[in-house]
Amino acid sequence: MAWTHRCCAARRCTSTARAPVIDSRAGRETGFLTLSSAELPSDWVRRWADLVTAGPVLDVASGSGRHAVLFAERGLEVIAVDREPQMIPGVQFVKADIEGGPWPFAGKRFAAIIVTNYLHRPLFTVLEQSLAENAVLLYETFMAGNERFGRPSNPAFLLKPGELLQAFRGLEAIAFEQGYVERPKPAMIQRLCATRGRAGTVRIAP
After folding, report:
1. Mean pLDDT rounded to a whole number for the chain
2. Considering the domain boundaries, does residue 124 fall inside one?
3. What CA dihedral angle connects 5, 150, 60 and 166, to 10 degrees?
4. With bands split at pLDDT 50, 70 and 90, how would you rate the model's confidence at 88?
5. CA nearest to 183, candidates 67, 24, 27
6. Which of 195, 200, 71 is nearest to 133 (CA)?
7. pLDDT at 10
8. Which of 102, 109, 114 is nearest to 129 (CA)?
9. 125 CB contacts (<8 Å, ≥6 apart)?
10. Measured at the alpha carbon of residue 201, what is the angle toward residues 123 and 14, in degrees to the nearest 5?
11. Separation of alpha carbons 180 and 186, rounded Å
12. What DSSP state is assigned to residue 143?
């Protein structure tokens, strides 16, 4: 299945173009730690990382901290939140249950929010509200159809077609893709790059 792609030209098309691929046979040395191939930053996040020029950056459900490291290496203030945070120099980690407990950043605004391989729909609204003016949202996770390839297979953890566009329709869409990917493993993925109020982007239709 080819990607469904939406970009700032406000058009839909299918594309077989692929983002640059990092050699999966080796890790990457960073100034913070050595990342294994399984922990390398998402191609989607790397593709749009240059849009993030200021902090604070919030890495939601940060896991190993692969995206926290990416932005900390760029000299930005980074906050990572997870139930089991990984301590990495240069990154402020917050231990919190963002599903069962209160949002730990009430009243705080971020220059960028990064979410990958994580879905808890009740957070959609609070994530949008936590974006500062001109901030960037980078969201990538699994979608319907992924059950053919393994976990996650529960519909509660799989996006419906076009769901990110609808959920964040109050933002300006820069790019949206959904469909099958082969790397880092076969999966059905949906991903969005959106901003709050930046000029030159396209409004997501309601």
Report:
1. 82
2. yes
3. 40
4. confident
5. 24
6. 195
7. 29
8. 109
9. none
10. 85
11. 7
12. B
- Split at pLDDT 50, 70, 90, the class of 51 is very high
Task: Answer whether residue 16 is part of any domain.
Answer: no
Angle, vertex CA 71, rays to CA 67 and CA 73, nearest 5: 115
Which pLDDT score, from 0 to 100, does residue 102 have? 95
User: Does residue 19 belong to any structural domain of this protein?
Assistant: no
Question: Residue 120: pLDDT band by 50, 70, 90 thresholds?
Answer: very high
> Residue 65: which region, alpha, beta or left (left: phi > 0; alpha: psi -120 to 50)?
left
CATH code of 83's domain: 3.40.50.150
158-187: per-residue pLDDT in tens? 999 999 999 999 999 999 999 999 988 899
Q: What is the pTM of this model?
A: 0.80
Amino acid in the structure at residue 198: R
The Cα–Cα gap between 180 and 187 comes to 6
Please state the φ and ψ torsions of residue 45, each to the nearest 5 degrees.
-65, -45
- Where helices occur in the chain by DSSP H, the ranges are 43-48, 66-72, 124-129, 163-167
Q: Based on the structure, what is the number of domains in the chain?
A: 1
* pLDDT tens figures, 9-25: 322 222 323 232 222 22
18: in domain: no
